[in-house]
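sry for the spam today, last one i promise. struct tokens for design, 117 residues
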């Protein structure tokens, strides 16, 4: 048991010394829902643009669900979707809604509260 206590003490000390490293290991998970209207070129471009941004700025940190409002109208109604494509970021809070094809990278980064490095 003494060894166990020593291990915990070392973990606490290293967390204090490298506080930034400890925080980076618990990066927030982004929960995203993209509502599109069918398989139109605009819908496909929206999915492609958003995936590229997420892969670049949120590698391994996001769940993206693409919902076709024609195939799943109940989900569109539940999400109160009035235009497509619409992206809803439900986590991390605050909840955000973005409408468009997501080709304006700066606007999407700002809308999702992503920090550029």
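last one done:
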């Amino acid at each position: 048991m003494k060894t166990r206590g020593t291990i915990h003490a070392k973990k606490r000390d290293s967390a204090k010394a490298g506080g930034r490293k400890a925080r980076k290991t618990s990066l927030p998970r982004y929960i995203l829902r993209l509502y599109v209207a069918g398989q139109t070129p605009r819908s496909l471009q929206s999915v492609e643009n958003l995936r590229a941004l997420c892969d670049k700025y949120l590698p391994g940190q996001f769940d993206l669900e693409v919902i076709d409002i024609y195939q799943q109208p109940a989900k569109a109604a539940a999400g109160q979707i009035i235009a497509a494509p619409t992206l809803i970021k439900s986590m991390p809070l605050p909840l955000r809604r973005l409408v468009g094809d997501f080709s304006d990278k700066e606007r999407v980064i700002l809308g999702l509260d992503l920090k550029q490095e």
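Residues 33 and 65 are 5 Å apart (CA to CA). ok im logging off now
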